[in-house]
From TrEMBL:
GO terms for molecular function: ATP binding; ATP-dependent DNA damage sensor activity; DNA strand exchange activity; double-stranded DNA binding; single-stranded DNA binding. Residues 16-187 form the RecA family profile domain. GO terms for cellular component: condensed nuclear chromosome. The keyword ATP-binding applies. PANTHER family: MEIOTIC RECOMBINATION PROTEIN DMC1_LIM15 HOMOLOG, RECA/RAD51/RADA DNA STRAND-PAIRING FAMILY MEMBER. This is RecA family profile 1 domain-containing protein. InterPro entries: P-loop_NTPase (IPR027417), Rad51_C (IPR013632), RecA_ATP-bd (IPR020588). Keywords: ATP-binding, Nucleotide-binding. It holds the Pfam family Rad51. It comes from Aegilops tauschii subsp. strangulata (Goatgrass). GO terms for biological process: chromosome organization involved in meiotic cell cycle; DNA recombinase assembly; DNA strand invasion; mitotic recombination; reciprocal meiotic recombination.
């Protein structure tokens, strides 16, 4: 339903939240137990700061059973920069005592080339998530294609509008299918004014690491 619900109904919905381990006890503690379903977690930092490595780890930890702080579900991965490496999944799966081939079979992957392609992939995911037990959606990186497709200063307003539309879709997926959404965003620290322009709009209820 798109309308109101009672506080009691909302409490029941909140009880369905699953917290998925990041593989790091310290990070899990900072996040209150791991990344949460029903919301978006954004990893924001410079190039090679571990954002994509965490995405690979979450591909595995999401498939752990609930009693091992996993999500007991499948993973959808949208890659905008060509950084996903299935061979990196193998040692992570072994570390968690899981069969690497089974883990890889439970990850669906798509390479996005334009922001429109990225958005259409999200639209297509709804049908899959309605049929199969997904627990995590990764978009790495959420803003890269917007920088390419809307590169001029005069296009900034349109870019922010399209990005807000994308983030709204991600929020809807998180809430409708009780999945965790993990997005990465690369910062450029050499120009402070640019940094604030490049940030994805903060979403209430989201986590930023």
């Amino acid at each position: 339903s798109q309308g109101f619900m009672t506080g009691s109904d909302l409490l029941i919905k909140r009880k369905s939240v699953v917290r998925i381990t990041t593989g790091s006890q310290t990070l899990d503690e900072l996040l209150g137990g791991g990344i949460e379903t029903l919301c978006i977690t954004e990893a924001f930092g410079e190039f090679r700061s571990g954002k994509t490595q965490l995405a690979h780890t979450l591909c595995v930890s999401t498939q752990l059973p609930l009693h091992m702080h996993g999500g007991n579900g499948k993973v959808a991965y949208i890659d905008t920069e060509g950084t996903f490496r299935p061979e990196r999944i193998v040692p992570i799966a072994e570390r968690f005592g899981m069969d690497a081939n089974a883990v890889l079979d439970n990850i669906i992957y798509a390479r996005a080339y334009t922001y429109e392609h990225q958005y259409n992939l999200l639209l297509g995911l709804a049908a899959k998530m309605a049929e199969e037990p997904f627990r995590l959606l990764i978009v790495d990186s959420v803003i890269a294609l917007f920088r390419v497709d809307f590169s001029g200063r005069g296009e900034l307003a349109e870019r922010q509008q399209k990005l807000a539309q994308m983030l709204s879709r991600l929020t809807k997926i998180a809430e409708e299918f009780n999945v965790a959404v993990y997005i990465t965003n690369q910062g450029v620290l050499s120009n402070l004014s640019c940094l604030f322009q490049e940030r994805a709009p903060y979403i209430r209820g989201s986590q930023i690491i």
